[in-house]
Amino acid sequence: MFESLSERLGGVFDRLRGRGALNESDVREAMREVRVALLEADVALPVVRQFVEKVTEQAVGQQVLRSVTPGQQVVKIVNDALVEMLGSEASDLNLDVTPPAIVMMVGLQGSGKTTTTAKIAKRLSEKGRKKVMMASLDVNRPAAQEQLAVLGTQASVATLPIVTGQQPVDIARRALQAAKLQGFDVLMLDTAGRLHVDQALMEEMKAVAAVAEPEEILLVVDALTGQDAVNVAKSFSEQVALTGVVLTRMDGDARGGAALSMRAVTGKPIKFVGTGEKLDGIELFQPARVAGRILG
Ligand code: GDP
Protein backbone atom coordinates (compact mmCIF):
# COMPACT_ATOMS: atom_id res chain seq x y z
CA MET A 1 0.00 0.00 0.00
CA PHE A 2 2.82 2.40 0.74
CA GLU A 3 4.20 1.84 -2.76
CA SER A 4 1.49 3.22 -4.97
CA LEU A 5 0.67 6.47 -3.21
CA SER A 6 4.29 7.07 -2.28
CA GLU A 7 5.26 6.52 -5.92
CA ARG A 8 2.74 9.15 -6.90
CA LEU A 9 4.21 11.44 -4.28
CA GLY A 10 7.80 10.59 -5.19
CA GLY A 11 8.12 13.14 -7.98
CA VAL A 12 6.68 15.88 -5.83
CA PHE A 13 9.30 15.32 -3.22
CA ASP A 14 12.37 14.45 -5.24
CA ARG A 15 13.69 17.95 -5.05
CA LEU A 16 13.07 18.05 -1.34
CA ARG A 17 15.77 15.48 -0.64
CA GLY A 18 18.53 16.78 1.55
CA ARG A 19 16.41 19.57 2.94
CA GLY A 20 15.53 19.78 6.59
CA ALA A 21 11.76 20.03 6.78
CA LEU A 22 8.61 19.41 4.72
CA ASN A 23 7.70 22.80 3.32
CA GLU A 24 4.18 24.02 2.74
CA SER A 25 4.09 24.20 -1.04
CA ASP A 26 5.52 20.68 -1.46
CA VAL A 27 3.07 19.31 1.08
CA ARG A 28 0.15 21.07 -0.64
CA GLU A 29 1.23 19.59 -3.96
CA ALA A 30 1.44 16.14 -2.39
CA MET A 31 -2.00 16.63 -0.87
CA ARG A 32 -3.45 17.05 -4.35
CA GLU A 33 -2.38 13.46 -5.02
CA VAL A 34 -3.77 12.34 -1.67
CA ARG A 35 -7.04 14.08 -2.50
CA VAL A 36 -7.34 12.19 -5.79
CA ALA A 37 -6.52 8.89 -4.07
CA LEU A 38 -9.22 9.49 -1.45
CA LEU A 39 -11.84 10.52 -4.00
CA GLU A 40 -11.04 7.44 -6.09
CA ALA A 41 -11.57 5.35 -2.95
CA ASP A 42 -15.06 6.88 -2.64
CA VAL A 43 -14.53 9.11 0.36
CA ALA A 44 -17.15 11.90 0.42
CA LEU A 45 -15.90 15.31 -0.75
CA PRO A 46 -16.49 17.29 2.47
CA VAL A 47 -14.69 14.56 4.41
CA VAL A 48 -11.77 14.67 1.96
CA ARG A 49 -11.49 18.44 2.34
CA GLN A 50 -11.51 18.31 6.11
CA PHE A 51 -9.02 15.46 6.14
CA VAL A 52 -6.58 17.08 3.72
CA GLU A 53 -6.65 20.31 5.73
CA LYS A 54 -5.86 18.47 8.94
CA VAL A 55 -3.05 16.39 7.46
CA THR A 56 -1.50 19.43 5.76
CA GLU A 57 -1.30 21.18 9.09
CA GLN A 58 0.35 18.16 10.65
CA ALA A 59 2.86 17.59 7.86
CA VAL A 60 4.11 21.11 7.17
CA GLY A 61 7.30 21.81 9.04
CA GLN A 62 7.95 18.19 10.07
CA GLN A 63 11.61 17.22 9.96
CA VAL A 64 12.45 14.97 7.00
CA LEU A 65 13.57 11.65 8.44
CA ARG A 66 16.76 10.10 7.10
CA SER A 67 15.39 6.57 7.00
CA VAL A 68 12.52 7.20 4.57
CA THR A 69 11.86 9.37 1.53
CA PRO A 70 9.73 12.50 2.08
CA GLY A 71 7.00 10.79 -0.01
CA GLN A 72 6.93 7.79 2.30
CA GLN A 73 6.93 10.08 5.28
CA VAL A 74 3.84 11.91 4.05
CA VAL A 75 2.12 8.61 3.24
CA LYS A 76 2.79 7.52 6.80
CA ILE A 77 1.31 10.75 8.17
CA VAL A 78 -1.73 10.28 5.91
CA ASN A 79 -2.05 6.63 6.91
CA ASP A 80 -1.86 7.39 10.64
CA ALA A 81 -4.44 10.16 10.31
CA LEU A 82 -6.76 7.78 8.41
CA VAL A 83 -6.43 5.12 11.10
CA GLU A 84 -7.16 7.68 13.78
CA MET A 85 -10.20 8.96 11.91
CA LEU A 86 -11.46 5.42 11.43
CA GLY A 87 -11.42 4.90 15.16
CA SER A 88 -7.91 3.52 15.86
CA GLU A 89 -8.97 0.35 17.67
CA ALA A 90 -11.42 -2.37 16.72
CA SER A 91 -14.64 -1.84 18.65
CA ASP A 92 -16.71 -4.87 19.66
CA LEU A 93 -20.32 -5.06 20.84
CA ASN A 94 -21.13 -3.72 24.25
CA LEU A 95 -23.37 -6.38 25.78
CA ASP A 96 -22.29 -6.14 29.38
CA VAL A 97 -25.75 -5.86 30.94
CA THR A 98 -28.20 -8.03 32.83
CA PRO A 99 -29.37 -10.50 30.17
CA PRO A 100 -30.94 -10.49 27.74
CA ALA A 101 -28.82 -7.85 25.96
CA ILE A 102 -30.79 -6.52 23.01
CA VAL A 103 -29.17 -5.88 19.63
CA MET A 104 -31.37 -4.16 17.08
CA MET A 105 -30.42 -4.30 13.40
CA VAL A 106 -31.55 -1.55 11.04
CA GLY A 107 -30.90 -0.70 7.40
CA LEU A 108 -32.30 -0.63 3.90
CA GLN A 109 -33.62 -3.68 2.11
CA GLY A 110 -30.84 -5.55 0.34
CA SER A 111 -28.08 -4.09 2.51
CA GLY A 112 -27.40 -7.53 3.99
CA LYS A 113 -29.23 -6.91 7.25
CA THR A 114 -30.77 -10.36 7.72
CA THR A 115 -27.57 -12.18 6.75
CA THR A 116 -25.56 -9.95 9.09
CA THR A 117 -27.99 -10.62 11.94
CA ALA A 118 -27.36 -14.35 11.55
CA LYS A 119 -23.60 -13.83 11.15
CA ILE A 120 -23.35 -11.85 14.39
CA ALA A 121 -25.63 -14.31 16.21
CA LYS A 122 -23.44 -17.20 15.09
CA ARG A 123 -20.29 -15.38 16.11
CA LEU A 124 -21.69 -14.54 19.55
CA SER A 125 -22.82 -18.09 20.16
CA GLU A 126 -19.62 -19.73 18.91
CA LYS A 127 -16.86 -17.31 19.92
CA GLY A 128 -18.65 -15.52 22.77
CA ARG A 129 -20.38 -18.67 24.04
CA LYS A 130 -23.61 -16.70 24.41
CA LYS A 131 -27.07 -18.15 24.24
CA VAL A 132 -28.60 -16.15 21.39
CA MET A 133 -32.12 -15.79 20.03
CA MET A 134 -33.04 -13.99 16.81
CA ALA A 135 -36.41 -12.52 15.90
CA SER A 136 -37.49 -11.04 12.58
CA LEU A 137 -39.76 -8.00 12.83
CA ASP A 138 -39.96 -7.69 9.05
CA VAL A 139 -43.61 -8.00 8.16
CA ASN A 140 -43.18 -6.04 4.92
CA ARG A 141 -41.09 -8.34 2.79
CA PRO A 142 -42.76 -11.68 2.08
CA ALA A 143 -40.84 -14.59 3.59
CA ALA A 144 -38.41 -12.36 5.53
CA GLN A 145 -39.28 -14.12 8.78
CA GLU A 146 -38.86 -17.53 7.15
CA GLN A 147 -35.47 -16.43 5.76
CA LEU A 148 -34.23 -15.68 9.28
CA ALA A 149 -35.55 -19.03 10.52
CA VAL A 150 -33.61 -20.85 7.76
CA LEU A 151 -30.44 -18.92 8.63
CA GLY A 152 -31.02 -19.74 12.30
CA THR A 153 -31.07 -23.44 11.49
CA GLN A 154 -27.85 -23.08 9.45
CA ALA A 155 -26.15 -21.18 12.25
CA SER A 156 -27.58 -23.36 15.05
CA VAL A 157 -29.13 -20.27 16.61
CA ALA A 158 -32.68 -20.17 18.01
CA THR A 159 -35.33 -18.01 16.33
CA LEU A 160 -38.59 -16.74 17.76
CA PRO A 161 -41.51 -18.83 16.43
CA ILE A 162 -43.43 -16.99 13.71
CA VAL A 163 -46.96 -15.77 14.49
CA THR A 164 -48.62 -14.70 11.26
CA GLY A 165 -50.22 -11.26 11.24
CA GLN A 166 -48.43 -9.88 14.31
CA GLN A 167 -47.06 -6.34 14.01
CA PRO A 168 -43.38 -5.36 14.67
CA VAL A 169 -43.81 -3.78 18.10
CA ASP A 170 -45.85 -6.76 19.30
CA ILE A 171 -43.29 -9.19 17.92
CA ALA A 172 -40.57 -7.25 19.78
CA ARG A 173 -42.56 -7.52 23.04
CA ARG A 174 -43.10 -11.24 22.55
CA ALA A 175 -39.41 -11.76 21.71
CA LEU A 176 -38.33 -9.92 24.85
CA GLN A 177 -40.60 -11.98 27.01
CA ALA A 178 -39.46 -15.24 25.41
CA ALA A 179 -35.78 -14.29 25.74
CA LYS A 180 -36.24 -13.46 29.43
CA LEU A 181 -38.27 -16.55 30.25
CA GLN A 182 -35.97 -18.90 28.38
CA GLY A 183 -32.75 -17.42 29.76
CA PHE A 184 -31.17 -16.10 26.55
CA ASP A 185 -28.08 -13.89 26.92
CA VAL A 186 -28.64 -11.95 23.72
CA LEU A 187 -31.74 -11.14 21.68
CA MET A 188 -31.18 -9.92 18.12
CA LEU A 189 -34.01 -8.02 16.47
CA ASP A 190 -33.92 -7.92 12.66
CA THR A 191 -36.16 -4.97 11.71
CA ALA A 192 -37.80 -4.36 8.35
CA GLY A 193 -35.92 -2.56 5.60
CA ARG A 194 -37.29 -0.48 2.74
CA LEU A 195 -35.99 0.29 -0.71
CA HIS A 196 -35.44 3.91 0.31
CA VAL A 197 -35.37 5.81 3.56
CA ASP A 198 -38.97 6.79 4.33
CA GLN A 199 -40.81 8.17 7.32
CA ALA A 200 -42.91 5.05 7.93
CA LEU A 201 -39.71 3.03 8.28
CA MET A 202 -38.22 5.55 10.70
CA GLU A 203 -41.40 5.65 12.83
CA GLU A 204 -41.49 1.87 12.99
CA MET A 205 -37.85 1.73 14.06
CA LYS A 206 -38.40 4.32 16.78
CA ALA A 207 -41.45 2.47 18.11
CA VAL A 208 -39.50 -0.81 18.28
CA ALA A 209 -36.51 0.90 19.93
CA ALA A 210 -38.81 2.47 22.54
CA VAL A 211 -40.19 -0.95 23.49
CA ALA A 212 -36.97 -2.97 23.26
CA GLU A 213 -34.52 -0.40 24.72
CA PRO A 214 -31.61 -2.00 22.87
CA GLU A 215 -27.99 -1.91 24.09
CA GLU A 216 -26.85 -1.81 20.48
CA ILE A 217 -28.53 -0.38 17.39
CA LEU A 218 -26.42 -1.39 14.42
CA LEU A 219 -26.91 0.15 11.01
CA VAL A 220 -26.12 -2.23 8.15
CA VAL A 221 -24.94 -0.57 4.94
CA ASP A 222 -23.63 -1.93 1.67
CA ALA A 223 -20.06 -0.69 1.10
CA LEU A 224 -20.48 -1.10 -2.65
CA THR A 225 -23.06 1.70 -2.74
CA GLY A 226 -20.36 4.26 -1.85
CA GLN A 227 -21.78 7.77 -1.53
CA ASP A 228 -25.36 6.50 -1.25
CA ALA A 229 -24.33 4.48 1.78
CA VAL A 230 -23.13 7.67 3.41
CA ASN A 231 -26.43 9.47 2.73
CA VAL A 232 -28.35 6.51 4.15
CA ALA A 233 -26.17 6.54 7.26
CA LYS A 234 -26.78 10.25 7.71
CA SER A 235 -30.57 9.83 7.54
CA PHE A 236 -30.61 6.93 9.99
CA SER A 237 -28.27 8.55 12.45
CA GLU A 238 -30.46 11.64 12.58
CA GLN A 239 -33.49 9.57 13.56
CA VAL A 240 -32.27 6.79 15.84
CA ALA A 241 -29.52 6.52 18.41
CA LEU A 242 -27.17 4.27 16.48
CA THR A 243 -24.34 2.66 18.43
CA GLY A 244 -22.42 1.35 15.45
CA VAL A 245 -22.28 0.52 11.77
CA VAL A 246 -21.72 -2.73 9.86
CA LEU A 247 -20.29 -2.40 6.36
CA THR A 248 -21.24 -5.35 4.18
CA ARG A 249 -19.74 -6.57 0.90
CA MET A 250 -16.22 -5.52 1.82
CA ASP A 251 -15.20 -8.72 -0.03
CA GLY A 252 -16.25 -6.94 -3.23
CA ASP A 253 -14.24 -4.26 -4.97
CA ALA A 254 -15.35 -1.43 -2.68
CA ARG A 255 -12.24 0.61 -1.93
CA GLY A 256 -13.36 1.24 1.63
CA GLY A 257 -13.66 5.00 1.40
CA ALA A 258 -17.28 4.77 2.54
CA ALA A 259 -15.91 3.63 5.90
CA LEU A 260 -14.14 6.91 6.45
CA SER A 261 -17.13 9.01 5.45
CA MET A 262 -19.44 6.86 7.54
CA ARG A 263 -17.49 7.44 10.68
CA ALA A 264 -17.27 11.17 10.00
CA VAL A 265 -20.98 11.50 9.22
CA THR A 266 -22.47 9.35 12.01
CA GLY A 267 -19.77 9.84 14.63
CA LYS A 268 -20.28 6.14 15.44
CA PRO A 269 -17.74 3.35 15.21
CA ILE A 270 -17.85 0.79 12.45
CA LYS A 271 -18.00 -2.44 14.42
CA PHE A 272 -17.97 -5.17 11.78
CA VAL A 273 -17.36 -5.72 8.10
CA GLY A 274 -19.13 -8.34 6.02
CA THR A 275 -16.68 -10.33 3.94
CA GLY A 276 -18.84 -12.85 2.07
CA GLU A 277 -22.22 -14.49 1.68
CA LYS A 278 -21.48 -17.35 4.07
CA LEU A 279 -22.36 -17.05 7.74
CA ASP A 280 -18.68 -16.98 8.72
CA GLY A 281 -18.10 -13.99 6.46
CA ILE A 282 -17.84 -11.35 9.17
CA GLU A 283 -14.89 -9.72 10.92
CA LEU A 284 -14.34 -7.05 13.51
CA PHE A 285 -13.60 -3.79 11.75
CA GLN A 286 -9.84 -3.16 11.71
CA PRO A 287 -9.09 0.53 11.07
CA ALA A 288 -5.48 -0.15 10.01
CA ARG A 289 -6.51 -2.69 7.40
CA VAL A 290 -9.15 -0.40 5.91
CA ALA A 291 -6.77 2.58 5.88
CA GLY A 292 -4.41 0.44 3.78
CA ARG A 293 -7.20 -0.39 1.41
CA ILE A 294 -8.17 3.28 1.00
CA LEU A 295 -4.60 4.27 0.16
CA GLY A 296 -4.58 1.45 -2.40
P1 GDP B 1 -31.52 -7.60 3.68
O1 GDP B 1 -32.62 -7.35 2.69
O2 GDP B 1 -30.85 -6.32 4.06
O3 GDP B 1 -31.94 -8.39 4.86
O4 GDP B 1 -30.39 -8.40 2.88
P2 GDP B 1 -29.98 -9.93 2.92
O5 GDP B 1 -29.39 -10.28 4.23
O6 GDP B 1 -31.13 -10.76 2.44
O7 GDP B 1 -28.77 -9.95 1.87
C1 GDP B 1 -28.94 -9.65 0.49
C2 GDP B 1 -27.88 -10.39 -0.28
O8 GDP B 1 -26.59 -9.90 0.04
C3 GDP B 1 -27.84 -11.88 0.01
O9 GDP B 1 -27.66 -12.56 -1.21
C4 GDP B 1 -26.62 -12.04 0.90
O10 GDP B 1 -26.02 -13.32 0.78
C5 GDP B 1 -25.71 -10.97 0.37
N1 GDP B 1 -24.72 -10.49 1.36
C6 GDP B 1 -24.94 -10.03 2.62
N2 GDP B 1 -23.78 -9.66 3.21
C7 GDP B 1 -22.80 -9.88 2.31
C8 GDP B 1 -21.36 -9.68 2.32
O11 GDP B 1 -20.73 -9.21 3.29
N3 GDP B 1 -20.70 -10.05 1.18
C9 GDP B 1 -21.34 -10.55 0.08
N4 GDP B 1 -20.61 -10.87 -0.98
N5 GDP B 1 -22.66 -10.73 0.05
C10 GDP B 1 -23.39 -10.41 1.13
From TrEMBL:
<comment type="subunit">
    <text>Part of the signal recognition particle protein translocation system, which is composed of SRP and FtsY. SRP is a ribonucleoprotein composed of Ffh and a 4.5S RNA molecule.</text>
</comment>
<dbReference type="GO" id="GO:0006614">
    <property type="term" value="P:SRP-dependent cotranslational protein targeting to membrane"/>
</dbReference>
<dbReference type="GO" id="GO:0005525">
    <property type="term" value="F:GTP binding"/>
</dbReference>
<dbReference type="GO" id="GO:0048500">
    <property type="term" value="C:signal recognition particle"/>
</dbReference>
<keyword id="KW-0342">GTP-binding</keyword>
<keyword id="KW-0378">Hydrolase</keyword>
<feature type="domain" description="SRP54-type proteins GTP-binding">
    <location>
        <begin position="269"/>
        <end position="282"/>
    </location>
</feature>
<keyword id="KW-0963">Cytoplasm</keyword>
<dbReference type="GO" id="GO:0003924">
    <property type="term" value="F:GTPase activity"/>
</dbReference>
<feature type="binding site">
    <location>
        <begin position="107"/>
        <end position="114"/>
    </location>
    <ligand>
        <name>GTP</name>
    </ligand>
</feature>
<comment type="function">
    <text>Involved in targeting and insertion of nascent membrane proteins into the cytoplasmic membrane. Binds to the hydrophobic signal sequence of the ribosome-nascent chain (RNC) as it emerges from the ribosomes. The SRP-RNC complex is then targeted to the cytoplasmic membrane where it interacts with the SRP receptor FtsY. Interaction with FtsY leads to the transfer of the RNC complex to the Sec translocase for insertion into the membrane, the hydrolysis of GTP by both Ffh and FtsY, and the dissociation of the SRP-FtsY complex into the individual components.</text>
</comment>
<keyword id="KW-0547">Nucleotide-binding</keyword>
<feature type="binding site">
    <location>
        <begin position="248"/>
        <end position="251"/>
    </location>
    <ligand>
        <name>GTP</name>
    </ligand>
</feature>
<feature type="binding site">
    <location>
        <begin position="190"/>
        <end position="194"/>
    </location>
    <ligand>
        <name>GTP</name>
    </ligand>
</feature>
<dbReference type="GO" id="GO:0005886">
    <property type="term" value="C:plasma membrane"/>
</dbReference>
<dbReference type="GO" id="GO:0008312">
    <property type="term" value="F:7S RNA binding"/>
</dbReference>
<comment type="similarity">
    <text>Belongs to the GTP-binding SRP family. SRP54 subfamily.</text>
</comment>
<protein>
    <recommendedName>
        <fullName>Signal recognition particle protein</fullName>
        <ecNumber>3.6.5.4</ecNumber>
    </recommendedName>
</protein>
<keyword id="KW-0694">RNA-binding</keyword>
<keyword id="KW-0733">Signal recognition particle</keyword>
<keyword id="KW-0687">Ribonucleoprotein</keyword>
